[in-house]
Amino acid sequence: MKFTLKIWRQENAKAQGHFETYKVDGISPDTSFLEMMDILNEQLVNEKINPVAFDKGCKGHSGPVSFDHDCREGICGACSLYINGRAHGPESGVTTCQLYMRKFKDGSTITIEPWRSSGFPIIKDLVVDRRAYDKILQAGGFISVNTGGVPDANSIPIKKENADESMDAAACIGCGACAATCKNGSAMLFVAARVSSLALLPQGKIEAKRRAKAMVDTMDALGFGSCTNTRACEMECPKGITVSHIARLNREFLSAKLSE
Amino acid sequence: MTELISKVPEGPLAEKWTNHKAHIRVVSPANKKKMEIIVIGTGLAGASAAATLGELGYNVKIFCISDSPRRAHSIAAQGGINAAKNYQNDNDSVYRLFYDTIKGGDYRSREANVYRLAEVSNNIIDQCVAQGVPFARDYGGLLDNRSFGGAQVSRTFYARGQTGQQLLLGAYAALNRQVAKGTVKSYPRHEMLDLVLINGEAKGIIARDLTTGEIQRFGAHAVVVASGGYGNTYFLSTNAMNSNGSAAWQCYKKGAFFANPCFAQIHPTCIPVHGDQQSKLTLMSESLRNDGRIWVPKKLEDVEAIRKGTKKPSDIAEEDRDYYLERRYPAFGNLVPRDVASRAAKERCDAGFGVNEQGLAVFLDFKTCMEQKGRKYIEEKYGNLFQMYEEINDVDPYKEPMMIFPAIHYTMGGLWVDYNLQTTIPGLYAIGEANFSDHGGNRLGASALMQGLADGYFILPYTIGDYLASKFKEPKTDTNAPEFEEAEKKIKERISKLLSIKGKRTVDSIHKELGHIMWEYVGMARNEAGLKKAISLIDDLKKEFWSNVYVAGDNDHFNQELEKALRVADFLEIGQLMAYDALNRRESCGGHFREEMQTEEGETKRDDENYMYVAAWEYKNDEEPALHKEPLEFKYCKVATRNYKD
């Protein structure tokens, strides 16, 4: 398969970015999207090594493209590409690393951009700084227990339905697709997933209100926008986390506000 | 000369840890506040250790190469975590978990360490539930279990197919709580490039800020390495793309012994390689072997027909299928340990029964389970794995069996540690996959998560206190000391050298070539001639790398090519040490299969008389590494030939 790639290049957070166009060919339909990016980078390095022999018509390019990636099986949350205007590309329910080239039309042009959100400044090319998500969780995304001195694991039975729903929310991989997709740049789905997952368990219920308030306040302070219920985040979440968790977050948040 | 003293406490096996804890020194709360600890890596071991040390009041600095501690590769563990809770009333016990682990490791691990691991396994489950880990539960509200390879009881706790993720999010949450309190300072996108010793003791590190390229110095009273394994030496493995052996390797080059490097685990159920453009291999969880049955056709003409596509696997009649694990190992069936299952797959493929185009795949089939338990049961238990398989292969595993093949997955070898998890360098500790201690020649499924959290939550936080108790009067480490100066200078020279070569080969092309050498000669079957060849081929490849590599970009920016180059430089050396160790160990045990040493049925043949020891290697600059031996003693379980047949 052959593709024309329009990729966002940006030296660092302060620099002006621009698109560069590259061509790749000989791509197997069974190749993953990120493997295609590896092939492109190998080609771009080879063009630097030997500009004549490897000339694919994209002279003067900015060198290999930087992009975040790690586990390549959809669980670490590192990959974060905006492909043809959608977070993680055209497929639903997958991360960029789980996207395969068979899903694209041979010969087509693919536009690749970084997450664009005021909460995620660009580090280089397609790599963004997502430390804001760590900071939101540091504000309260935990249960306050120390190691040791806890009761036996079976001492508090938990309704299977609650444990399952908690697990649905806990499937969040912290990739940032929700905030990158939201027109307000809100990280509400990310915050809600953690708040909801813990609030559904007796262990986490105890500090649920305080947690909700602290995390939402931190999200606001870090420059993320507010939620206006467009549900775009839910559409693009690679782990199928639903906005019902935002509803639960709102309940916890409101009752925290009311009890102030 | 450094001596190997394991520091295993005296006394009966079941009392060793309790007695040891009672007698080691502790640091007072007031003094803990004055002490600094560096932790490298934020997987299960690193995150749990850092969080717990922070809770105790130490000042902890934690480093990870990814943009958030949550992305460490522990996150990808699917199947589960073992514990001897005996919630299923199937007669499990601490002793049985200990025994299964020793036997699974083919009698090449340290009894006292393994017993302690089994002993604290139950605390881990309690801890994780208290942190809000949503483990699978039954309708009565209590925890559910499943079975894993090498065990005849159900002792594996799980959270769908995402157990590693959930346990890591638990440890990461505990870590975040300490970051908020100020006891832990987090350094994401930082890579340790060297260990700094002062008077022979670990006192700090040199790290590169991956965003800016700045080379930085960090001092501490002790350093804990929790940087995982070195499976990516093979280029293709189930490890994440950025997983690497460099942090542990720098410790080795500073004098820490490296133990049993040749013990690498080859996981039987991975998605087969599809071409030469592939970047990594995907694991299909071992838990699938609870309900899936592994087979190849009995007749070669059926194999041909499947390869050509004239027959579908589901067309093959029951009586024409060879369920070879059930045939060869009736007592354990599809749940034999990983090394046994991997070799059995290789045996069938070598005999010509491999079912994909390359002849390098076998089937993992859920037909029987669909008939007996139904689709809903499978969806609930393995839904995400089935979805993952379909995304990658474009084949619906509910209709046709999965194709699987063994792949490199985990490394049992690692930095040599004593009972306190201290390396041969005072003040340097190694935990989780980065050390060697608990899994011997083969790790059982669902035991990596157990070991990472055991080390991090319950063992290291106690044992490191024993060392620090003699250090609390020492002032903070001065990073202006000449040792830091020297280490930083060397790192800068190494980076300049790499960037200045400007040769003709890409970093990846050399890494791939190393991977081919490793898989061919230091892979599933090894022999003397092949291992010698590997050592010499890697010598040549090292020269090629240092004279002809092209590293794009510079040091002063975010530069993933440079990151890769620094890691590949170390993989080349690690691969060679693995080959030296495999050559020395002229026996077959666990994942290490020497073709010269096998039974008539093709099973591993150990040589207990000559090789019942831990091989710990000492770095000798440009000379061959020096071998030190720690003899292994088995007082509490009978050493026997592993038998999964009867």
Protein model, in words:
Chain A has 260 residues and is α+β, with helices and mostly antiparallel strands. Chain A has 2 domains: 3-124, Ubiquitin-like (UB roll) (Roll), CATH 3.10.20; 131-258, Fumarate Reductase Iron-sulfur Protein, Chain B, domain 2, CATH 1.10.1060. Chain A is built from 9 helices and 7 strands. Chain A is elongated. Chain B is of the alpha/beta class and 646 residues long. Among the domains of chain B are: 269-409, Succinate dehydrogenase/fumarate reductase flavoprotein, catalytic domain (Flavocytochrome C3, Chain A, domain 1, Alpha-Beta Complex); 482-631, Fumarate reductase/succinate dehydrogenase flavoprotein-like, C-terminal domain (Methane Monooxygenase Hydroxylase, Chain G, domain 1, Up-down Bundle). Helices cover 37% and strands 15% of the residues of chain B. Chain B has a 5-stranded parallel beta sheet with strand order 5-2-1-9-17, sandwiched between helices. Chain B has a 5-stranded antiparallel beta sheet with strand order 11-15-14-12-13. In chain B, helix 4 (94-104) crosses helix 5 (111-131), helix 15 packs antiparallel against helix 16 (528-548) and helix 15 (507-521) runs parallel beside helix 17. Chain B is globular and about 75 Å long. Classes of the chains: A alpha+beta (260), B alpha/beta (646). Chains A and B meet through helix 1, helix 2 and helix 3 of A and helix 3, helix 5, helix 6, helix 12 and helix 13 of B.
